[in-house]
TrEMBL record:
GO terms for molecular function: NAD binding; oxidoreductase activity, acting on the CH-OH group of donors, NAD or NADP as acceptor. Belongs to the D-isomer specific 2-hydroxyacid dehydrogenase family. Keywords: Amino-acid biosynthesis, NAD, Oxidoreductase. One of its GO terms (biological process) is amino acid biosynthetic process. This is 2-hydroxyacid dehydrogenase. Residues 6-311 form the D-isomer specific 2-hydroxyacid dehydrogenase catalytic domain. It comes from the Bacteria. PROSITE patterns: D_2_HYDROXYACID_DH_1, D_2_HYDROXYACID_DH_3. Residues 103-280 form the D-isomer specific 2-hydroxyacid dehydrogenase NAD-binding domain.
Amino acid sequence: MERSLVYVLDPIAPSAVATLRQSCDVVDHDDKRKGRWLEDADGVIVRTSKIPRDMIAAAQRLKVIGKHGVGVDNIDLDAARDRGVAVINTPGANSNAVAELAVGLALAVARRIALLDRMLRDGAVTSPPPQGIELTGRTVGVVGMGGVGRRTAALFKAAFGSTILAYDPFAPPEAFAAADAERCASLDELLPRVDVLTLHIPLNRDTEKLIDARRLALMKRDAMVLNLSRGGVVDETALHDALTNGTIAGAATDVFVQEPPPAGHPLLRLPGFVATPHIGAATAESMERMGMGVVGGVVTLLGGGTPDHRVV
């Protein structure tokens, strides 16, 4: 029986590639043949590589696209659906890693950690240095109650005794109950009540620039915004204006519209802003879980089975 051919277009855990080789022929991300995947790939595995409509149309043998991670905005899902190409992902595998980063970014904003680190390295520490705030007892608003949102809520509650408010029109009631979260009927209801807003939602037509100037103006002046979803969910210009004008006190993001952002990006010049380069899921443990998960799904589908997490 002919073995399926799978191209791994982005780096994944070596153990996952080794597992994939047990069932399929593999062209790894560093193989010079990688660029030929349109000709003969039965499956591809991606992290951030874009798979647009024209590629899906050209890849006549393609049966499955495996997304290492949760967000699938780099894949043209409509084109995959039109061609009958399956798309799978790995929800839950990176939840803890992203949630831990959300807590870390919140602390970085609250205690001015990045600013104070830069001041210390530059020999520019003032006396007294800038003051921070404590997170204990603060109200946290979670937008998106999937695996990442629920885990983020749990960590804030365990670490700081946070009151959790949550908004997600698609999540079942048990998701809110499990997080001991008050379900808000609308985002506009949630925003004025929270000290920390943390975003964990996909980027699509409905969520693009969901957090805009109008919604930022609804928030408390001492509140902070954390974006660990996708850059386009927050209007970056509006966020810059809100931080500059004191509409909100601080913000942190792991994601930008353009990645990596240019060195002169206006947000990177602001003292109340903290950023990381889309590394929410980049822990050794999470990479292992996502790698094994996406490989397992691809192998299952190519073998005629039903994968656990099929998007299309």
